[in-house]
């Protein structure tokens, strides 16, 4: 009887959120660090299916860093990074695109379709989705085929959403000269969320959220505004691969996305817990 009452209470708690977010766009970046965990991947698919059936419009952008690292290692190609971005030469970009668009993208798309939702797997070259240019971080360091987003083809995404398809996007861009670019998946998700005027942006990986000290669980931060986020970076409390992630969050909030959520995809049904409970489970960044 207790479990039945608990289930009813959970539904009552979720009801106002279901009403508030119906027909709203959620952009979800699904981190490559958790794609290989089959039970949690299947729970993620269930979460997306439920959100879709409740009337939310879902766009998925996936990463694949760990899978790329493994594949490159098998090919004898060393992985190097600069300020959180993978240095991607002309040989590496072909391997990166194959892993992201040829393998991981189709795996997620198939699981979604088999769950009863309609999904289509694409990358930034399809319908001119992600027009890009070469990214320059430091003039003295050439990071190769790493892209900066110039334009998102929102008309194409609107077309898919209007027909109740979930776009599953691998973070590969292109330029007018025919160059292919590897783009940080957080950046792609952020720019798509901005361009589509999304209600929420989710960054799902293998971390619980933001800590001021990774070795101290008591320093976990459940809610931040953009000024506090910028200060964490300037104070050196955010570093490495977290810098582009937090900058993507700040960029989205400054461009009209209502909230950004950093959550741990290794927790079963983490998206539902973040969306439909009062406390949530991750770090929420807002204006």
Task: Characterise this structure.
It is globular and about 55 Å long. It is an alpha/beta fold. The chain has a single domain, classed as Acetylglutamate kinase-like (Carbamate kinase). The strands form five sheets. An eight-stranded mixed β-sheet has the order 5-8-2-1-11-15-16-14, with helices on both faces. It has a two-stranded antiparallel ribbon with strand order 3-4. The chain contains ten helices and 16 strands.
How much of the sequence lies in strands comes to 15-25%
Average pLDDT, all residues: 90
Report the end-to-end length measured between terminal Cα atoms.
42 Å
The stretches of 5 or more residues where confidence is low (pLDDT under 50) are: none
Structural class category: alpha/beta
Please name the fourth-level CATH homologous superfamily.
Acetylglutamate kinase-like
Radius of gyration over C-alpha positions, nearest whole angstrom = 19 Å
CATH topology: Carbamate kinase
Number of domains: 1
- The first-level CATH class is given as Alpha Beta
> What's the tally of helices?
10
Spatial strand order of the main sheet = 5-8-2-1-11-15-16-14
Q: What proportion of the residues is helical, as a percent range?
A: 40-55%
SSE pattern: HEHHEHEEHEEEHEEEHEEEEHHEHE
Query: How would you characterize the largest beta sheet?
Result: 8 strands, mixed
Number of strands: 16
From the spread of the alpha carbons, the general shape counts as globular
């Amino acid at each position: 009887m207790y479990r039945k009452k608990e289930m009813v209470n959970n539904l009552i708690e979720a009801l106002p959120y279901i009403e508030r977010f119906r027909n709203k766009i959620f952009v979800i970046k699904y981190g490559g660090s958790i794609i290989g965990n089959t039970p949690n991947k299947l729970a993620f698919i269930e979460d997306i299916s439920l959100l879709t059936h409740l009337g939310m419009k879902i766009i998925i952008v996936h990463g694949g860093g760990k899978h790329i690292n493994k594949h490159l290692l098998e090919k004898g190609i060393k992985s190097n990074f600069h300020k959180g971005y993978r240095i991607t030469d002309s040989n590496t970009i072909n391997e990166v695109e194959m892993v992201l668009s040829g393998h991981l993208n189709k795996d997620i798309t198939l699981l979604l379709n088999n769950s009863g939702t309609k999904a289509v797997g694409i990358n930034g070259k399809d319908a001119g989705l992600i027009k890009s240019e070469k990214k320059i971080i430091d003039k003295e360091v050439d990071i190769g085929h790493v892209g900066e987003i110039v334009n998102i083809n929102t008309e194409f995404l609107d077309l898919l959403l209007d027909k109740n398809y979930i776009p599953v996007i691998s973070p590969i861009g292109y330029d007018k000269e025919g160059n292919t670019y590897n783009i940080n998946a957080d950046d792609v998700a952020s720019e798509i969320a901005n361009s589509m005027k999304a209600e929420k942006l989710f960054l799902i990986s293998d971390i619980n959220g933001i800590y001021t000290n990774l070795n101290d669980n008591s320093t976990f931060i459940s809610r931040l505004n953009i000024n506090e986020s910028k200060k964490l970076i300037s104070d050196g409390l955010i570093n490495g691969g977290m810098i582009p992630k937090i900058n993507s969050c700040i960029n989205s909030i400054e461009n009209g996305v209502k909230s950004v959520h950093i959550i741990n995809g290794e927790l079963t049904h983490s998206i539902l817990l973040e969306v439909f409970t009062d406390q949530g489970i991750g770090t929420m960044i807002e204006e």
